From TrEMBL:
<dbReference type="GO" id="GO:0000976">
    <property type="term" value="F:transcription cis-regulatory region binding"/>
</dbReference>
<dbReference type="Pfam" id="PF13377">
    <property type="entry name" value="Peripla_BP_3"/>
</dbReference>
<dbReference type="GO" id="GO:0003700">
    <property type="term" value="F:DNA-binding transcription factor activity"/>
</dbReference>
<keyword id="KW-0805">Transcription regulation</keyword>
<dbReference type="Pfam" id="PF00356">
    <property type="entry name" value="LacI"/>
</dbReference>
<protein>
    <submittedName>
        <fullName>LacI family transcriptional regulator</fullName>
    </submittedName>
</protein>
<keyword id="KW-0804">Transcription</keyword>
<dbReference type="InterPro" id="IPR028082">
    <property type="entry name" value="Peripla_BP_I"/>
</dbReference>
<dbReference type="InterPro" id="IPR010982">
    <property type="entry name" value="Lambda_DNA-bd_dom_sf"/>
</dbReference>
<dbReference type="InterPro" id="IPR046335">
    <property type="entry name" value="LacI/GalR-like_sensor"/>
</dbReference>
<feature type="domain" description="HTH lacI-type">
    <location>
        <begin position="39"/>
        <end position="93"/>
    </location>
</feature>
<dbReference type="InterPro" id="IPR000843">
    <property type="entry name" value="HTH_LacI"/>
</dbReference>
<keyword id="KW-0238">DNA-binding</keyword>
């Protein structure tokens, strides 16, 4: 009996779509063709023999409609060629079909692949994107969140250094207002806020273990003095690998620049590496906290006529412009591209299931081996 009932429903729906399809087809009027009629929620309701309210709730993922009905409605919408009316949806849900993405780092371009994939993935869900660039040390973030609220965004992703611990309350308030929220911050945990994390510590450890595998034992790490964030986590991975190998770590820290902009990283790291070399530092390998630090180290070494990688190997992180270095730089590629798609997916899942538990995605780096690294002399 159940199978017969299902069969009848299917035939009924097929008849309905054929009937509706006749009204959607173009009609020839004189020498021209009139455009197809726009498919509405009313058409979908007629097709499924349900009320319009049910269709509206199903398309907007509003509670009160079964998952089975949501599937039927979405399938019917696709078959009929229904296109979502974002304005009408916003009136129903109180939210527009918009997602926000808030970033702090735009100079080095490390998050450009994230933005691209975020926009493309959002588009596949019929969502638009609003980008906000902020300085976390000013009031920019408060203004950015206010603007996103005014635009009635459905969800927001906070990337990298866009937020700090002092901003936790802002993110929690936004999430509790009904906006889907996620962040790439490693130190932020909240039941209603999902996270996408780059395994920065694992990358630092992997870079060090890679050099250890080439026979290097005297490995220096060049970075600014940091107590948190990406550079700090990469340094912690380096320290872990050195201690595991029972070797003494060598930290070459930039202490006289508490704030280093991306545009200053090459110059500042060049000066610090040259200073350390002139003071007698003789590592067989140098790891830069990112590609810019590593590039600065390479400039300093070349100026001192140190052959790379014959005498000193150099490794960076991010793989932004590493291929343009001479010699081409070995780098650990940050998984920023995949993270954009992951961020949108988590926002969509949060919108469908607002009460579900916190979800955490951890993304691994890829080691891109090039010409700036080689076996240590002692390993030959």
């Amino acid at each position: 009996m159940i199978q017969c009932s299902t069969m009848k429903a299917s035939l009924s729906e097929k008849a309905n779509v054929e009937s509706i399809g006749e009204t959607m087809d173009t009609k020839q009027v004189g020498n021209r063709m009139e455009p197809k009629k726009k498919v509405t929620m009313k058409d979908i309701a007629k097709y499924l023999n349900v009320d319009r309210t049910t269709v509206s709730k199903a398309l907007a993922s509003i509670p009160g409609v079964s998952e089975q009905m949501k599937e039927r409605v979405n399938k019917a919408a696709e078959e009929l060629g229904y296109r979502k009316d974002n304005f009408a949806s916003g009136l129903t849900t109180g939210k527009n079909s918009l997602l926000g993405i808030v970033l702090a780092d735009i100079v080095r371009g490390v998050f450009a692949p994230l933005i691209t994939n975020f926009q493309q993935t959002a588009k596949s869900y019929n969502y638009g994107v609003i980008l906000q660039y902020v300085n976390p040390h000013s009031d920019d973030l408060v203004q950015a969140i206010d603007l996103l609220k005014q635009q009635r965004v459905a969800g927001v992703t906070f990337v990298g250094g866009a937020t700090e611990k002092k901003h936790d309350g802002l993110l929690i308030d936004l999430a509790e207002s009904g906006v889907a929220v996620n962040t790439t911050r490693r130190d932020f945990i909240h039941n209603r806020i999902d996270s996408i994390r780059f395994d920065n510590k694992g990358a630092g450890r992997a870079a060090t273990q890679y050099l250890l595998g080439l026979g290097h034992r005297n490995i220096a790490y060049l970075s600014k003095k940091a107590e948190s964030g990406t550079e700090y986590e990469r340094r912690e991975g380096y320290l872990q690998a050195m201690y595991e190998a029972e070797l003494q770590p060598t930290l070459v820290e930039i202490k006289d620049h508490p704030v280093i902009t991306p545009g200053e990283e090459v110059t500042v790291s060049y000066r610090r590496m040259k200073e350390a070399w002139l003071e007698g530092l003789r590592p067989s390998a140098v790891i830069g906290a990112n590609d810019n630090y590593a590039l600065g180290a390479m400039h300093a070494l070349k100026e001192e006529d140190v052959p790379i990688p014959d005498e000193v190997s150099v490794v960076g992180f991010d793989d932004l412009h590493a291929v343009l270095a001479v010699p081409q730089m070995t780098s650990l590629r940050m998984p920023t591209g995949p993270s954009g798609a992951v961020a949108v997916r988590l926002l969509m899942e949060r919108l469908k299931q607002p009460e579900r538990l916190h979800s955490r995605e951890v993304l691994e780096y890829d080691l891109i081996e090039r010409e700036s690294t080689g076996k240590a002399r002692s390993a030959d």
